[in-house]
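[job 0412] stage=complex_fold ligand=guanosine-5'-monophosphate status=START
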Amino acid sequence: MTYDPSNIFAKILRGEIPSHRVYEDDAVVVFMDVMPQGPGHTLVVPKAPSRNLLDADPAALGPLFTVVQKVAMAVKKAFGADGVTILQFNEPASGQTVYHLHVHVIPRFEGIALKPHTGQMEKPEVLAENAGKIRAVLNG
Ligand code: 5GP
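[job 0412] stage=complex_fold status=DONE, emitting structure tokens
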């Protein structure tokens, strides 16, 4: 299995299609998942190309998970969440649907189950509002 640069996240990283961005640095971009499993579901995406964790350069993982932690803390505060779920899928058998490494960061609330993976599209205005809440915490 090789990396295909026409995947949707590569297009988002290149700015060819829009996303609701919350954070960017030299190594990582963070944007809202368009089919969130809960309010504030974000995706942390390294700029370095790899299909998933299995073919990633280990040197990319430190910067990636530094941002995962930063975003986990930010979404917990932004949404008043009780906890945060981190998900990461590798190859179709695991449930991976987009073949550029990414980590899901999902605020969690006591007694509320996750919605299905790649379920319903969220309204753009809701995604924009939620991105704004996370940016406000990160920049605050
Ligand atoms: P995977 O199944 O590969 O772990 O997760 C891919 C995620 O990307 C899914 O949660 C899905 O909702 C999300 N997704 C799919 N297409 C797009 C898109 O065009 N833009 C954004 N922001 N998220 C997407």
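The beta strands are 21-24, 28-32, 42-46, 83-87, 103-108.
[job 0412] exit 0
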